[in-house]
């Protein structure tokens, strides 16, 4: 391993490497000039250093005490403020939900599901998608819109005197929960100048049960078979007197065909 | 003591040597016995360093020019960046560190290196493991945990390699001569035992019996931070404790300081790591305990810093000549800066801005490069001439290496820190969109790429110089290579 003498080189050189010199120097210059292996002195600890230790321990300890969150296993707040996460999280979640009115929640659901066809202004697309703003189906009794949203609608339909029918509305009973359908209906019935009664989740649940065996989408005759001012089962929510008289469209005057 | 006690071929020197020369012969024999394994570790490390540097440059450019090769799957950011980090951590830093540690162990145990085959096999397996791991990352097998991205099949190979190396280290310690155990040995033995603990614990808790949910992040950061402290930090400090007194030829200032520094380091470092998760979904006390431990690391840092400073006291001018001393002292100073910055950015009030910004990357580079890599460069400048039996070829290359490294890493840390603080402040500003906060740091990222160019130059210069040494090419010399012409008599010995 330590016999690495390379053959003598012919080139002119400034000096020679140890390994290549004629009389092989095992103990070469780098080692000869080397200082002895390091030793350790025994200087005492400085008083200033002990002061630094004290400061570090003090600040470390103070920090630990202040931001420990009471060493609670589920306390995320370093100051140990509001108690355990589960309660706090639950209460806060509910509160947040409660802060949003059904109208606001409905707006989100509308934007995510309905807006593509019926448009943000609720006017739909002429000839393709019927309007919701001012529509006699939307603003009349809550039963008709409930049926449409739950089970969908296909075939020709006349809304606000215009004919539609090229597009099919899908049923939403598989996709949206009762509460969501109620919220989106509440939104549609009170937005864009509409002024009809709100709808509750319980009402939709009852309607869903009632229509459970209804196989396919409704058609216009199905809807017209229901009185225009028919309300959903479960009745109007308490305290929400529906301002029906002010409702714009003519409830009975749209026997289209 | 007699030279014949040493179980190796007797050197070709006169038999009736004065006793002072016995020590020299002993050293010569030890150095000769470490030649093959240490050079093997060093050479592999330097090849990995070059590869990792190219990856780093690529990653850095990709941050401000994301369209580069974005349609080649194995050159995408998500693969090249972990590849870069792991090549540097396991390929370069670990291998170079182990090379230095092996040489220091042999020197300090005052015994020729026994069972070199263990080390040669260990180096082979380790290289194979890193190669396998990097390949795995590039084809998409990355595990996604910081510094643990190597897929499990590569981790197993690394384990085999490491068990060979650690058994060698324990054997060497067992066969040591002399009754004193020098400070460097404390750190090296500590590092050799801490690394398997860290690596095994992290592998076990992340892949074998994974802990639940967010606790995986806690394990992952505990590992990453402690790898920096207890593996690289311990090897780096141990090396500095040897090189500084050795080169200047003066005892280390104080044994008491060294003891306190070592034990408090071991105690507090292992508690750190969670401070990188401030405001994460963890029990507050976990994070706070890590922050408090980070504050307490002021104790070992101040102690070790003072010990080194007092040792160097009056000998600082030697840094003009000795490459080893210059690199090592730069590294030792960086260690203090690194630790101070670590305390600063771990405090909750600061961390809420700099967490998850470029500043934490600045922190990692300060530790792994400005401190560890520079110390290891220093040790290589000391060790390699003794292994190959040649002096360093050109002082100009050493100077170029040093200054390119210093300016490169300095610029990088400045850019990343400034960019990181700015990024953090912008992310905290609710009126700014997230995309704006990333756009404001683009100039800093370009500056970082510039620093990458400097570091690339530095590494290629060093690798070239190392190659000349290895193959005996270039200018030959039988006098030590100083960085500057020696003006005063007597400083010749300090290399």
Structural summary, described in words:
The complex is a heterodimer of chains A (about 260) and B (about 500). The N and C termini of chain A lie far apart (about 105 Å). Among the domains of chain A are: about 55-85, no CATH class; about 100-235, Cytochrome c-like domain (Cytochrome Bc1 Complex, Chain D, domain 2, Orthogonal Bundle), CATH 1.10.760.10. Chain A is mainly α and about 260 residues long. Chain A is built from ten helices and two strands; from the N terminus they run αααααααββααα. Chain B is an all-alpha fold. Chain B has a domain at about 25-180: Four Helix Bundle (Hemerythrin (Met), subunit A), CATH 1.20.120. In chain B, about 75% of the residues lie in helices and about 0% in strands. Chain B has helices at about 20-65, 75-110, 115-140, 150-175, 185-210, 215-250, 255-270, 285-295, 300-310, 325-345, 350-355, 360-390, 395-430, 435-440, 440-470. In chain B, α6 runs antiparallel to α10 (about 325-345), α12 packs antiparallel against α13 (about 395-430) and α13 runs antiparallel to α15 (about 440-470). The longest helix of chain B has about 45 residues, at about 20-65. Chains A and B meet through α1 and α2 of A and α1, α6, α7, α8 and α9 of B.
């Amino acid at each position: 391993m330590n016999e690495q003498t390379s053959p003598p080189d012919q080139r002119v050189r400034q000096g020679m490497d140890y390994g290549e010199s004629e009389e092989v120097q095992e103990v070469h210059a780098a080692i000869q000039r080397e200082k002895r292996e390091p030793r350790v002195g025994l200087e005492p600890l400085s008083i200033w250093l002990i002061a630094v230790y004290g400061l570090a321990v003090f600040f470390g300890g103070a920090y630990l005490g202040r931001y420990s969150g009471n060493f609670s296993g589920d306390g995320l707040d370093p100051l140990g403020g509001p108690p355990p996460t589960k309660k706090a999280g639950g209460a806060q979640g509910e509160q947040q939900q409660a802060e949003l009115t059904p109208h606001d929640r409905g707006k989100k659901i509308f934007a995510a599901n309905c807006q593509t066809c019926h448009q943000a202004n609720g006017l739909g697309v002429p000839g393709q998608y019927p309007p919701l703003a001012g529509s006699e189906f939307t603003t009349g009794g809550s039963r008709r819109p409930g049926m449409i949203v739950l089970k969908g609608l296909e075939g020709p339909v006349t809304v606000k005197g215009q004919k539609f029918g090229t597009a099919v509305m899908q049923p939403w009973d598989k996709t949206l929960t009762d509460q969501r359908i109620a919220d989106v209906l509440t939104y549609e019935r009170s937005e864009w100048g509409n002024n009809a009664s709100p709808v509750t989740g319980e009402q939709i649940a009852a309607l869903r049960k009632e229509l459970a065996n209804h196989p396919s989408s409704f058609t216009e005759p199905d809807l017209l078979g229901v009185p225009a001012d028919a309300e959903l089962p479960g009745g109007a929510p308490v305290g929400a007197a529906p301002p029906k008289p002010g409702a714009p469209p003519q409830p009975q005057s749209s026997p289209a065909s | 003591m007699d030279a014949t006690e040493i179980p190796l071929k007797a050197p070709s020197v006169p038999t009736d040597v004065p006793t002072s020369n016995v020590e020299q012969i002993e050293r010569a024999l030890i150095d000769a016995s470490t030649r093959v394994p240490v050079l093997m570790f060093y050479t592999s490390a330097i090849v990995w360093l070059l590869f990792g540097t190219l990856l780093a440059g690529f990653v850095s450019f990709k941050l401000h020019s994301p369209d580069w090769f974005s349609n080649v799957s194995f050159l995408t950011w998500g693969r090249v960046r972990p590849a870069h980090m792991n090549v540097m951590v396991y390929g370069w830093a670990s291998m170079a560190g182990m090379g230095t540690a092996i040489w220091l162990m042999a020197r300090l145990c005052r015994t020729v290196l026994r069972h070199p085959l263990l080390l040669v096999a260990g180096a082979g397996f380790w290289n194979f493991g890193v190669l396998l791991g990097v390949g795995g990352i590039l084809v998409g097998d990355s595990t996604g945990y910081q510094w643990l991205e190597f897929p499990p099949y590569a981790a197993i190979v690394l384990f085999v390699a490491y068990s060979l190396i650690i058994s060698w280290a324990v054997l060497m310690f067992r066969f040591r001569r002399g009754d004193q155990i020098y400070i460097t040995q404390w750190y090296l033995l500590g590092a050799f035992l801490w690394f398997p603990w860290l690596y095994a614990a992290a592998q076990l808790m992340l892949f074998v019996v994974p802990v639940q949910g967010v606790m995986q992040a806690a394990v992952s950061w505990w590992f990453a931070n402690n790898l920096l402290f207890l593996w690289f930090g311990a090897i780096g400090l141990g090396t500095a404790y040897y090189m500084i007194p050795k080169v200047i030829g003066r005892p280390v200032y104080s044994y008491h300081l060294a003891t306190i520094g070592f034990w408090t380091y071991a105690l507090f470092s292992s508690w750190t790591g969670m401070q990188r998760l401030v405001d994460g979904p963890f029990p507050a006390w976990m994070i706070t305990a890590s922050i408090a431990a980070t504050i307490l690391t002021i104790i070992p840092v101040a102690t070790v810093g003072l010990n080194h400073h007092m040792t160097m006291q009056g000998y600082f001018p030697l840094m003009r000549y000795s490459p080893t001393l210059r690199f090592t002292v730069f590294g030792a100073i960086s260690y203090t800066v690194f630790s101070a910055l670590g305390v600063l950015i771990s405090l909750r009030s600061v961390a809420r801005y700099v967490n998850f910004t470029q500043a934490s990357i600045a922190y990692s580079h300060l530790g792994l490069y400005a401190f560890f890599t520079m110390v290891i460069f220093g040790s290589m400048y000391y060790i390699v001439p003794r292994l190959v039996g040649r002096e360093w070829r050109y002082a100009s290359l050493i100077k170029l290496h040093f200054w390119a490294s210093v300016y490169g890493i300095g610029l990088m840390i400045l850019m990343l820190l400034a960019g990181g603080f700015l990024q953090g402040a912008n992310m905290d500003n609710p009126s700014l969109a997230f995309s704006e906060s990333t756009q404001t740091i683009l100039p800093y990222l370009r500056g970082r790429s510039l620093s990458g160019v400097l570091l690339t130059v530095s590494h290629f210069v060093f690798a070239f110089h190392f190659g000349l040494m290895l193959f005996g090419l270039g200018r030959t010399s039988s006098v030590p290579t100083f960085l500057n012409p020696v003006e005063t008599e007597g400083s010749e010995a300090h290399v």
